[in-house]
């Protein structure tokens, strides 16, 4: 989980500045924090998309942005993605029966398609046999979102972007509040 925090002293100074306008600081700071969290999430998502072959909608489905009065950030659920969310060949829904084909999966961009010999697709899901027997089957999984963020090495860029966006947006939000807008 990545977050940015607005310290109590800074909140006090903002309240002093906006003292004549009731509750404006209470609205200005969380808005700037929320915008900073959104920009940090965007940088993290782009870092993952540049490194892995996963789709944007799959990242967004497991990412949550939050903002409170003095803290904002985003969190990513750490469930492992099934490998069908990555680049898989063949694109057929099933590779069993007469349609039997070798399944190749590319997780990281530029690493090439890796062939999996005991893996097959059935109704869009990827399974692996543990041996020569028909059963048991294992559900094939790839890395989690947190693993992808650390693998893409974007954590420092995320925090830097969040802080930069907050510093830019807080001035805008204070000006907005002083102009008398809601």
Could you tell me how far the N terminus lies from the C terminus, measured between alpha carbons in angstroms?
A: 31 Å
| Percent of residues in beta strands | 15-25%
Q: Determine the mean pLDDT.
A: 82
Over the alpha carbons, how many angstroms does the gyration radius reach?
23 Å
Question: What do these coordinates show?
Answer:
- The protein has 182 residues and is α+β, with helices and mostly antiparallel strands.
- Helix content is 42%, strand content 24%.
- The strands form 4 sheets. Strands 1-3-2 form a 3-stranded antiparallel sheet. The chain has a 3-stranded antiparallel sheet with strand order 5-6-7, with no helix packed on it.
- Strand 6 (103-106) and strand 7 form a beta hairpin.
- Helix 1 (8-17) crosses helix 2 and helix 2 runs antiparallel to helix 5.
Provide tags for this entry.
single chain, 182 residues, alpha+beta, 3-stranded antiparallel β-sheet, 5 helices, elongated
Quick synopsis:
The protein has five helices and eleven strands. With 182 residues, it is of the alpha+beta class.
Q: What's the layout of helices and strands?
A:
Layout: E1 2-5, H1 8-17, H2 24-51, H3 56-61, E2 63-67, E3 71-76, E4 80-82, E5 87-89, E6 103-106, E7 114-116, E8 119-122, E9 125-129, E10 137-139, E11 141-144, H4 145-152, H5 155-178
Antiparallel strand pairs: 1-3, 2-3, 4-11, 5-6, 6-7, 8-9, 9-10
């Amino acid at each position: 989980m990545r977050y940015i925090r607005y310290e109590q002293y800074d909140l006090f100074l903002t309240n002093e500045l906006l003292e004549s306008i009731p509750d404006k600081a209470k609205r200005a700071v969380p808005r700037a924090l929320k915008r900073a969290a959104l920009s940090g999430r965007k940088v993290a998502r782009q870092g993952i998309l540049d490194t892995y072959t996963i789709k944007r909608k799959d990242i967004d489905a497991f990412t949550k942005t939050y903002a409170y009065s003095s803290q904002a950030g985003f969190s990513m659920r750490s469930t492992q993605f099934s490998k069908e969310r990555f680049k898989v060949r063949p694109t057929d829904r099933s590779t069993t029966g007469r349609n039997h084909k070798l399944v190749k999966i590319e997780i990281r961009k530029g690493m090439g398609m890796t062939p999996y010999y005991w893996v097959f697709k059935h109704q869009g899901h990827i399974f692996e046999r543990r041996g020569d027997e028909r059963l048991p089957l294992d559900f094939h999984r790839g890395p989690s979102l947190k693993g992808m963020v650390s693998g893409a090495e974007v954590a420092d860029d995320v925090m830097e972007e969040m802080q930069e966006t907050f510093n830019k947006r807080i001035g805008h939000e204070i000006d907005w509040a002083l102009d008398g807008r809601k």
